[in-house]
Amino acid sequence: MSIVPFPPPVKPKFKFIDLFCGIGGFRLVLQSLGGKCVFSSDSDAAARATYQTNFGELPYGDIRKLTNSNILDEEIDRLIPNHDLLTAGFPCQPFSRAGVSARNYLGQNHGFKDIEQGNLFFDIVRIARVKKTKFLLLENVKNFLTHDQEKTFHIVRETIEKDLGYSFNYKIVNSSSLVPQRRERFYIVCFRDKVHFEFPNFQGEPLPLRLILEENVCNKFTISDKLWEGHQKRSQRNEARGAGFTVKLANLDKPSGTLVSRYYKDGKECLIPQQGKNPRMLTPRECARLQGFPEEYLLPNSAAAAYRQFGNSVAVPVVIRIAQAILEKLDTIDISNRRITKSRIQNSS
User: Fold this and answer.
1) Active-site residues (predicted)?
2) What is the fold, at CATH topology level, of the domain defined by 209-308?
3) Is 21 considered catalytic here?
4) Does the predicted model carry a pTM greater than 0.90?
């Protein structure tokens, strides 16, 4: 029997559920801070397999099977374990700039109009309402703030503040001072006690990409002459018309661009220059490091799966900083509540 690299804590300090869990970026953080995961869910079978390898638990599949309109609140209350924290990096493709552009081009819906992925936020809301979750930690793409002329953002904020009665605190965070990647993501922290939350400071010098690079990388990661030539031709055409993506070799003394789930297709978002060779793609381990995953984290056997999974993940060190700030705030609330309770007992006596 293989040893699970990241088992749950023996004496947990709090409980959480891990929705749209992917490969467990949130779980890595919350377990390290003393949390026990009591339920996890993701619709991607390959991501669930990687999650199981590292945490010894196979997540539930599509959460909509437990939250659809045919399921009563009482049934949700029975099926979802009690927990303190709900965390979710709910699907971002319907809100990302690239996702919106692609859907517009194909005549497809995006945002909340995307029935398959865009409405999953409301599954989070229903679980939080039924289970009376103490606080929420949510993540999405930077474009979530401005999507559909900010209508999406205002719907989310109003739902959380008015329908759920939670406080609503948000921030766009750039990860480049914690990992060598310019990854801007939209984070939301909500407290059922309507607590105002201050996000930690993420300012600092950007880290250089060379920090996470492996030595003696296998030649299979070097892109072919055909692919490299195609990249250069497309870049020239796009530059001439002033539109579209262009391919540039990574500057190893600066952070990389954002790692995305499509990276496995051709690596154009981050190509590493090589002396006397075509550039190469990042290795799966380098992608893991780019997101701040520990060296002990076990990678999937498929490089393509690894690229997709890490491209969809959170930057672990960013979540650590936010989660620490949340738990410090909770400690303050608990101390205050204990003082209030003690005062009431003394007054009543």
Assistant:
1) 92
2) DNA Methylase; Chain A, domain 2 (3.90.120)
3) no
4) no
